[in-house]
Amino acid sequence: MENTEKSAIPSILLILLWTYTGLDKLISWDASKKAFHNQTFPAELAEILAFAVPISELLIALLLLFSVSRWWGYLSSILLLTVFTTYVGLIWVGAFPRIPCNCAGILESLGWAEHFWLNSFMIVLSIIGLSGTKKRDPKVPL
Questions:
Q1: CA gap 3, 36 in Å, rounded
Q2: How high is the mean pLDDT of the chain?
Q3: Contact 7, 129 (CB under 8 A)
Q4: Which contacts of 71-75 are long-range, i.e. CB under 8 A and separated by 24 or more positions?
Q5: CA-to-CA distance for 138 and 142, rounded, in angstroms?
Q6: Any idea where the domains of the chain sit in the sequence?
Q7: Closest-CA residue to 123 (of 84, 70, 72)
Q8: DSSP 8-state class, residue 92
Q9: Which pLDDT score is estimated for 6?
Q10: Which of 104, 76, 77 has its CA nearest to residue 88?
Q11: Nearest to 26 by CA among 2, 64, 6, 52
């Protein structure tokens, strides 16, 4: 299997994940914003994240869509998923005084443990994709 074929499966799965979660937050804007405000961080941060998270998720999906930017998409996926997984892990082990609600459409039905392991799997997929993808200089023709 060539490197481009190896990185195709992870990129497709991550594009589906990021597109679904980003669009779900935008389509269900009021519920999504309310869910961000129900998290354990300050209201000002929740307001910023309500906008930043779905936009970031959709931008990562776009980065993964094109071979010239795919490396950055994988790297961004690893970073964002690591933040999400750490937060979910902290909730799962009871590090916060209260348990906030999940906020990701169908994924909302997952418990914290399942969410943690799904995110961890997606991090592994991102690492596999990153390792099979060369960082490209956008100024150099393909």
A1: 38
A2: 87
A3: yes
A4: 71/130, 71/133, 71/134, 71/135, 71/136, 73/11, 73/14, 74/7, 74/10, 74/11, 74/14, 74/126, 74/127, 74/129, 74/130, 74/133, 75/130
A5: 9
A6: 3-131
A7: 84
A8: H
A9: 57
A10: 104
A11: 52
pLDDT tens digits, 71-122: 999 999 999 999 999 999 998 898 988 877 655 556 677 888 898 999 999 9
Side chain identity, residue 129 = G
Handedness of CA 107, 59, 82, 123 (dihedral sign): positive
Q: What percent of the chain has pLDDT over 70?
A: 85
The confidence score (pLDDT) of residue 1 equals 44
Output the six-digit token pair for 14: 């991550």
DSSP character string of 14-69: HHHHHHHHHHHHHHTHHHHHHHHHTSSS-HHHHHHHHHHHHHHHHHHHHHHHSTTT
- pLDDT value at residue 104: 55
Please report how the helices 70-92 and 43-65 are oriented relative to each other, as an axis angle in degrees rounded to 10. Answer: 140
